[in-house]
Amino acid sequence: MKKWAFLLVILLLLFGFEVMKQEPEVTKDHLSIEDYLAQDVIDQGDNQAIDAIDQDDNQSIDVGMDQIYQGDLLLVNKEYPVHQEGVTPDVINLFQNQELVQGYGLLDNTIQLSQRVVKQFNTMIDEAARDGVRHFLISSGYRDEQDQNRLYEEMGSDYALPAGYSEHNLGLSLDIGSTEMAMNKAEEGKWLQKNASTYGFILRYPKDKSAITGIQYEPWHYRYVGLPHSVIMQEKNLTLEQYLDFLKEQKTITTTIDHEEYEISYYPIMKNTTILMPTVRRYEVSGNNIDGVIVTIHP
Ligand SMILES: [Zn+2]
Predict the structure, then answer these.
(1) pLDDT in tens for each of the 299 residues of the chain?
(2) What are the D-alanyl-D-alanine carboxypeptidase-like core domain coordinates in residue numbering (predicted)?
(3) Does 154 qualify as catalytic in the annotation?
(4) Contact in structure between 273 and 259 (CB atoms under 8 Å)
């Protein structure tokens, strides 16, 4: 019995061994079919990837380091000065372009501003006039380095910023007055506080935010940041400093204005980078003047 049992064990072992020996062969055959299929899938996948890259080619954005210092969302304050490439290229003298100045006054004949910003400002002033608010005055716009230096020397560090550290050096900021009375009391000031964000402008130094902005309340100083940013900042009660921090934290946000959806994303930029866009839509890129860019996808 023991001998038979022993033989049975031997047979089982042999049989088992045979099965084990065959198993890899079966598995191998099976695998090779899978390999083949997998290969096919990989090939298809490759084609899809290539197609995707082809499609995205139109929507890939090459971002160089200099882009950090250009655009409508640049943060300029005591910490972050204007870089030369940050000055808006379309600055014009308003006094010499009177056809663009309608429905408001200019303090003097030296006022300069980005032409793009003037157009938005005009649209806003037209709308204010429809509400019966029509005594606006631009008292300051773009200031070059010389202007800013002169102002700094005349006014001192309590009232002016050194050259390069003022938003006025960008061409995107302006001081708006009322011909009637001080802006904190004037209808013009009240109307702007309520409505300017609809036109891409923000009150840059609000009363309750001087600890964040480092600047006392300036009811006259408005900054163009563009849509949809101005609307989001107004709704969430954020200064530009806070808004840029918020975008960095969130990475991507979407917002709907008048039933139109915008997508806003922050990208840190440490070297020249290519950003692939998820969709084929109109977009805008602005640096934050610190360490990255904000891509805004328009409706
Ligand atoms: Zn100002």
Answers:
(1) 455 555 444 444 444 443 343 333 333 333 333 333 333 333 333 333 333 344 444 678 999 999 999 999 999 999 999 999 999 999 999 999 999 999 999 999 999 999 999 999 999 999 999 999 999 999 999 998 888 889 999 988 877 888 899 999 999 999 999 999 999 999 999 999 999 999 999 999 999 999 999 999 999 999 999 999 999 999 999 999 999 999 999 999 999 999 999 999 999 999 999 998 877 789 999 999 999 999 999 99
(2) 111-226
(3) no
(4) no
Residue 47 Cα, ligand 1 centroid: separation in angstroms? 55
* Ligand 1 centroid, distance to 160 Cα (angstroms): 9
Exactly one of 127, 218, 241, 284 is catalytic; which is it?
218
